[in-house]
Amino acid sequence: MITERPFSPELLRTSKEEKLRYFKNIIVPHRNIRLLLDQLLKNAIEPDDALVYLVFGVTGVGKTRLKAEFEKRLLKQFETEIISNPGCLIVGGIEVDSAEGGKFNYSDYYIQVLESLKEVLINYKESYGIDLEADNEDHLRGDHEGKNAKALRRAMHKVFTHRQLKAYTLDEAQHLFDVAGGRQINIQMNWLKSIANKTQTVHVLFGTYELLKCQEVNGQVGRRSEDYYLPPYYLEKPEDQQEFIKVIQTLQKHFPVENKPQLVDHWEYFMAYSIGCVGILKSWWYRSLKNALDDGAKTVRMKDFKARELSAGRRKKIKAELDEGERRLANLYNDEKAKKTESTNSPSIQKRRKVGERKVGRDLVGFNQEG
Length: 371
Description:
Elements: H1 16-24, H2 31-45, E1 52-56, H3 63-77, H4 79-84, E2 91-95, H5 106-116, H6 149-162, E3 167-171, H7 182-199, E4 202-207, H8 213-217, E5 225-229, H9 238-252, H10 267-273, H11 278-295, H12 302-308, H13 312-332, E6 363-365
Parallel strand pairs: 1-4, 1-5, 2-3, 3-4, 5-6
Helix pairs in contact: 1-11, 2-3, 5-6, 11-12
């Protein structure tokens, strides 16, 4: 009953907490993640003139998992450099805090970044009136005029440069733009691009469809950035059905229970109730496993899945977010300026232009959502 399982039989004799920890840490590779991951890695390893990348999608589609895999793969890519120079960091990242009262706290942002990179003596960064940079050259608004904000920013720039960061990732990046007014959103994007340009560090922002605010406010603001769309799998698309079934087949093997459940026959139920999002499916199955283990069951039963499925209200809310997000996406990228590929093809950047020649507007890299 435990043949062809990807874990040691010893796991079945461990505690409930160990079993849940094992399942929680399982990573399920699938097409949509894999395709975007390959593109992001290429851009970080061999960056071009676009140093800011926006990755967006609906809640639970897998953005946080994509971020973690991106960081892991990038570290692996530069393993030799890290061994020869232990001081280099290659990649770092934080989860962005929400802006309070429509004002973004720049000083707090710098401190969080420095802490994430293990910078020392952060509280002792002082500005002694030496203008190494033009005062407020990016026209920042918000809590950026703290006593030592400029010193913190300079320290952050130096860490990025001297610790040889290839990329810096921002999770929940939509909070960067929780600010009042379209002008301030432009300022935020320009500020971020300034950091990326001065340090030559790729910045990858992961967030919800609210990242589209940048383009909606001003289509010119993203000339040096690119958009990546991470879609769910669609129940009406045969190729998406097949990929989702593969996810089910892979994930069900990892249930640390005596009898492996056979769930492929129920793929339509799982796909519909997870809105085609692998992240939602994984969280749902984790809760279902906990339900089964609490009951002392030898397998995860359909009644466990039924008991821990998302409520109709929550599913409706996520679906509404998806529909609205894709409507906004279609409004922005419904002309020839947007490069949109079929979901079965690798998402690729538009063909290279001559040196110095770049198309006006933002680039979309993702999947064609036409039925």
